[in-house]
Amino acid sequence: MTALTGSADCPLVTLATTRDDLHHVAEHVLAAARHAAAGKIGLVPWPGGFRTPTFGPDGRFLVVDGTDLVVGNDAGIRRTALTTIRAAAEFAGVTPGAPARVYQPATPLSLDEPLMIDPEAARLLAQWYQLGAGAMGLLAAEIADDEPGAVVLWPEHFDVGMTAASINYGASPGDDQIAEPYLYVAPHGGPPLGDPAFWNAPFGAARTFGQVGTVREAAAFFRDGRARAQAAT
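The structure assignment produced for this chain is given below.
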């Protein structure tokens, strides 16, 4: 996926509701499953949404694909609609609940609250994660000397991120600070002084999905942020 499609047709309130409910699933089902089996919480973007890496001797994995949960292993896959956290966890054979010993969960464990996941909003968020991850992959290939880390979808923040040379790069699905999905460049020391037009957020620089619509544009933003941050040090 190289460009977003259909973003103007999805109201922000629908996007926010879908984002929040998918965040619940990421924390309380997928991260819970991976942590219980492998002691790790990181997820990865997937064309239809996001998933765990494989874990366990049978190649087990969990995927959120649009409005569905997919559970698979070396023997095959099963699929069900996402309706509640309790139902999803039972289908996956998981004890629900974010791994609170690792981090403070960002979402409450609401076992029977209906999950309101809009198909169009879920598709848009999946595209956004793919766009961000693709741009980070391009940047990482260019900046090997910065020792870039892996591109990970972190369940606590629900963003796709990468760290390289004390700078965080990422794609957020939106949050309380910025309602729209956005890309960010966040130097560990905070935004440099003297360039507020670029460094427009408390954590650094942000560009929303209304401003960046392709992998190439996203990579250019990351590249520009890196150059400006390095020039200010």
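Interim note for the steering committee: Strands lie at 44-46, 49-51, 61-65, 68-73, 76-81, 152-154, 159-164, 167-172, 182-187, 205-208. The chain is about 35% helix and 20% strand.
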